[in-house]
């Protein structure tokens, strides 16, 4: 079940593409947590490329952008290198999808993350949810609109 707006996002500790641990509490000043199915898939590559090309949108809102998949950290490193991605890609590899499940973004039938993003304020409260159906990327305009909800409380 997707987290409700107004709820506190669960804590987590996941390795990024460099093997460094990133925690939810370390995302100071607000965050956008983007769950995505798989590195190197067509839609995910396009979608994360759009996020990369629009980092100023997130910087201007004062939030940290991170993306989470069930891929291994080494896969995420290769993906980041191949696509010039500088923001953290977090590996929810083992236990398989445990953080993704806690955020209500795990597709139990397929075994991977659904396309759900959470906009959090500095206290870790969910201020907006951005999602799209299987096979469709989330439009960058949806993030721009959602970021307005967190800017109002930062």
From TrEMBL:
Catalytic activity reported: a hydroperoxide + [thioredoxin]-dithiol = an alcohol + [thioredoxin]-disulfide + H2O
Membrane in keyword set: no
Catalytic residues of the enzyme: 44
Keywords: Antioxidant, Disulfide bond, Oxidoreductase, Peroxidase, Redox-active center
Classification via Pfam families: AhpC-TSA
GO MF terms held by the record: thioredoxin peroxidase activity
Domain Thioredoxin: 3-152
Top enzyme category: oxidoreductase
GO biological process, one term: cell redox homeostasis
E.C. number(s) listed in UniProt: 1.11.1.24
Entry GO CC: cytoplasm
Subunit structure: Monomer.
Family stated for the protein in its record: Belongs to the peroxiredoxin family. BCP/PrxQ subfamily.
Biological role stated in the UniProt entry: Thiol-specific peroxidase that catalyzes the reduction of hydrogen peroxide and organic hydroperoxides to water and alcohols, respectively. Plays a role in cell protection against oxidative stress by detoxifying peroxides and as sensor of hydrogen peroxide-mediated signaling events.
Record's protein name: thioredoxin-dependent peroxiredoxin
């Amino acid at each position: 079940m997707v987290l409700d707006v107004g709820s506190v996002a669960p804590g987590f500790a996941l390795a990024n593409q460099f093997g460094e641990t990133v925690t939810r509490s370390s995302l100071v000043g607000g965050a956008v947590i983007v769950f995505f199915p798989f590195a190197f898939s067509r839609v995910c590559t396009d979608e994360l490329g759009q996020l990369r090309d629009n980092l100023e949108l997130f910087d201007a809102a004062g939030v940290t952008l991170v993306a989470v998949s069930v891929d291994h950290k080494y896969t995420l490193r290769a993906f980041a290198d191949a696509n010039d991605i500088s923001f953290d890609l977090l590996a929810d590899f083992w236990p398989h999808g445990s953080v993704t499940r806690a955020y209500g973004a795990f597709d139990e039938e397929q075994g991977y993350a659904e396309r759900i993003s959470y906009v959090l304020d500095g206290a870790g409260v969910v201020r907006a949810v951005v999602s799209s159906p299987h096979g469709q990327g989330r439009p960058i305009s949806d993030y721009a609109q959602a970021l307005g909800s967190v800017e109002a409380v930062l």
